[in-house]
Design a protein that fits this description.
Number of domains: 1
Structural class: alpha/beta
CATH architecture: Alpha-Beta Barrel
Distance between the termini: 42 Å
Strand order of the largest sheet: 1-2-3-4-5-6-7-8
CATH class: Alpha Beta
Radius of gyration: 20 Å
Largest sheet: 8 strands, parallel, barrel
Oligomer: single chain
Helix content: 40-55%
Shape: globular
Number of helices: 11
Amino acid sequence: MKPVSDLKIKIFADGADKAQILRSKANPLIKGFTTNPTLMRAAGVTDYEAFAREILQIVQDLPISFEVFADDFAEMERQAKKIASWAENVYVKIPITTTHGESAMGLASRLSRSGVKVNVTAVLTLDQVRSAADALAGGAPSVISVFAGRIADTGRDPVPIMAEALRILSTRPGIELLWASPRELLNIFQADDVGCHIITATEGVLSKLQTVGKDLQEYSLETVQMFYNDASRSGYKL
């Protein structure tokens, strides 16, 4: 088992809870942050810009991604430029398509060439990786977020897909591959072994970093104790 200190991949914290972001910012393992409108809504955020600016007072020296939420290209572009203006460390998430399936990579290309750091999100296929790579090539530093966890949810092994995505990007300097939506801690080690540049994970996954390398015999005993204690507290009788 590789120790956490030997990981080469950059670990980003994914979420929209201020207290969680503060905890993650104090963790030297965390090298950046991502969020999205779904996470923000779940966290009770009602004012998008006010929340983002508050978080940017905390996260000043690490990359952080905020996502546009419009569905037409003119408004997406306006939002993207506004979000990018908030701070130098901001990446703007642009979905690979609109909700109608129209490619947003023309917009991503314009933004990237104008100096906006773009994070292309919701990518699940290698054709989408190629399209995003073509759009971002030669522009500002950028990220392509492949939702490996969602790929795995369909019964497909994401590892060979991520390896091929990395090969596609190997001739595109300035574009990083991000393993998105991990489902378990093992995914961090899988992403590192593949050579992904970044993995982003929720606090639920990141909290398990403390168990890396844990003795399995000891872990077994703790599990037995947990079941026993819970049964005792429940007062079950047979």
